[in-house]
Amino acid sequence: MCLAVPARIVELQDSTATISVEGALREVDVSLIEEPRLGDYVLVHAGFAIHKWDKSEVEELEAIRGATA
Predict the structure, then answer these.
(1) Alpha-carbon gap, residue 22 to 17, rounded angstroms
(2) Are strands 5-13 and 41-45 parallel, antiparallel or unpaired?
(3) Which residues sit opposite 20 in a β-bridge?
(4) pLDDT tens-digit profile of 53-65?
(5) Phi and psi for 19 in degrees, rounded to 5?
(6) For 1-17, what is the mean pLDDT?
(7) What is the CB neighbour count within 10 angstroms for residue 9?
(8) Do residues 16 and 29 touch, judged by C-beta distance below 8 A?
(9) Are 38 and 9 in contact (CB under 8 A)?
(10) What is residue 53's three-state secondary structure?
(11) DSSP strand pairing (24-29 vs 41-45)
């Protein structure tokens, strides 16, 4: 089974980003996505950011998180 997790970019240096997954920090490669920026939400799998979420996807994620809290 493969698992990809949503995360927020909190630090960025070249093609490496530090991401936060509910407060847990981890370094990942962001070379597969276009123009990564601080604060972007990305989908991470096996140490790589594989998709940058647009605003509507982030809002949906926040709504889901709020509903399960």
Answers:
(1) 16
(2) antiparallel
(3) 8, 25
(4) 988 888 887 788 7
(5) -115, 160
(6) 89
(7) 21
(8) yes
(9) yes
(10) coil
(11) unpaired
H or E segment at 68?
helix 55-68
Q: Is 46 helix (H, G, I), strand (E, B) or coil?
A: coil
Contact 44, 19 (CB under 8 A): yes
Amino acid at 63: A
CA 30/CA 69 separation, integer angstroms: 29
DSSP 57: H
Helix (H), strand (E) at residue 67 = helix 55-68
**pLDDT tens digits for range 26-50:** 999 999 999 999 999 999 999 999 9
Locate 42 and state its tokens. Answer: 């990305």
